[in-house]
């Protein structure tokens, strides 16, 4: 655990982020989960141990982490912003029954060819969103 804490502190420092307890807690929380939580879910989770976090501090920690590229926003449902500490290129699956979101490895869709885009569009990033029904539903 101590080792992991050091690793997290080093990652934040490498990105030239001042290490605050909130940034540390939010990033550690996101690294431990793969469910793409909302800011509110992170807040609830953090406050389970000790009710020290506010919505504002969680949001500002998320924005700081996002700006340096450690966390990305995932927008799969209208109006709902989720967060992901997996910053490797990957796709997402979303179950339309239970709402579970799962990472799909980039290689899943090896054959996507973006060269077919019309001229003039400079693609910077893209990802596939698969919607359907998961094993449990
Ligand atoms: Zn499901
Ligand atoms: Zn993801």
Automatic annotation (TrEMBL):
This is Transcription regulator, Fur family. Fe cation binds at residue 110. Keywords: DNA-binding, Iron, Metal-binding, Repressor, Transcription, Transcription regulation, Zinc. Gene3D superfamilies: 3.30.1490.190, Winged helix-like DNA-binding domain superfamily/Winged helix DNA-binding domain. GO terms for molecular function: DNA-binding transcription factor activity; transcription cis-regulatory region binding; zinc ion binding. It comes from Crocosphaera subtropica (strain ATCC 51142 / BH68) (Cyanothece sp. (strain ATCC 51142)). Zn(2+) binds at residues 95, 98, 134, 137. Binds 1 zinc ion per subunit. One of its GO terms (biological process) is regulation of secondary metabolite biosynthetic process. Belongs to the Fur family.
């Amino acid at each position: 655990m101590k080792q992991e804490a050091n690793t997290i502190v080093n990652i934040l420092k490498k990105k030239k982020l001042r290490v605050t307890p909130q940034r540390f807690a939010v990033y550690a929380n996101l690294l431990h989960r793969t469910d793409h939580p909302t800011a509110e879910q992170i807040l609830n989770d953090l406050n389970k141990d000790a009710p020290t976090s506010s919505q504002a501090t969680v949001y500002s920690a998320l924005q700081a982490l996002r700006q340096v590229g450690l966390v990305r926003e995932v927008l799969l449902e209208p109006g709902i912003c989720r967060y992901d500490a997996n910053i490797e290129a990957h796709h997402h699956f979303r179950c339309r029954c239970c709402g579970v979101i799962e990472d799909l490895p980039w290689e899943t869709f090896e054959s996507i060819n973006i060269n077919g885009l019309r001229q003039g569009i400079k693609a910077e990033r893209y990802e596939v969103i698969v919607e359907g029904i998961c094993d449990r539903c």
